[in-house]
Amino acid sequence: MSILESFNIGSNALRAHGLRLDIHAKNVANIDTPNYVRKIPVLNATEDISFHGLMNTMKNDVFGVGTLSYLQGGVTFSGVVEDPTIGEKIYRPGHPDADENGYIRASNVNPMVDMADAIMAQRAYEANLALVNITKSMALKAIEIGR
After folding, report:
1. Handedness of CA 128, 133, 139, 142 (dihedral sign)
2. Helix (H), strand (E) counts: the chain
3. Cβ of 12: how many Cβ atoms within 10 Å?
4. Tens-digit pLDDT profile for the chain (147 aa)?
5. For residues 14-47, b (16+ Cβ closer than 10 Å) or e, as one string?
6. Are 82 and 68 in contact (CB under 8 A)?
7. CA 94 to CA 105: how far, in whole Å?
8. How far apart (Å, rounded) are the C-alpha atoms in residues 111 and 29?
């Protein structure tokens, strides 16, 4: 794997986990917003790293050539899905969002879940930032050696 590919993997992961953190922050900010539906970020691996995918790669490359093929890692942000759980019905007859019976639907955001997910996203972001910094220091050392 080249240094530029390491930068690419790190920058894609920084973008994906940054978007993930933004989505969780929006969820927490809308805890008290009526009819708000919690958003869930979807991340996917850039390669098929499942057991089946790895065995197919090995079948095609290792047994034919004798070495494990190059697998590029990484993560991509695939979009957002809405949480299917339904928020609690609250009786507020004068509210503009109330239905014909005077009920509004409360937000389905669970602050504990979103805060935990936000902490995981922050840690993943920090880990990928460390990856980019280590790659940068390796590139600088390679330039020093080349002088």
Report:
1. negative
2. 4, 4
3. 17
4. 678 888 888 899 999 999 999 999 999 999 999 989 999 999 988 775 567 766 776 666 555 554 445 556 788 899 999 999 998 999 999 888 888 999 999 999 999 999 999 999 999 999 999 999 999 999 999 899 988
5. bebbbebbebbeebeebeeebebbbbbbebeeee
6. no
7. 14
8. 9
Contact 72, 111 (CB under 8 A): no
pTM, two decimals, is 0.76
Say if residues 36 and 30 touch (Cβ distance below 8 Å): yes
Around 75, how many Cα atoms within 13 Å sit in the side-chain half-sphere? Answer: 18
User: Is 63 within 8 Å of 92 (Cβ atoms)?
Assistant: no
Cβ-contact 13, 74 below 8 angstroms: yes
Bridge partners of residue 45, in order along the sequence: 75
Identify the bridge partners of residue 131 per DSSP, sorted by sequence position. none
| Residue whose pair of structure tokens reads 């004068």 in the numeric block | 94
AA letter at 32: D
CB 128 within 8 A of CB 14: yes
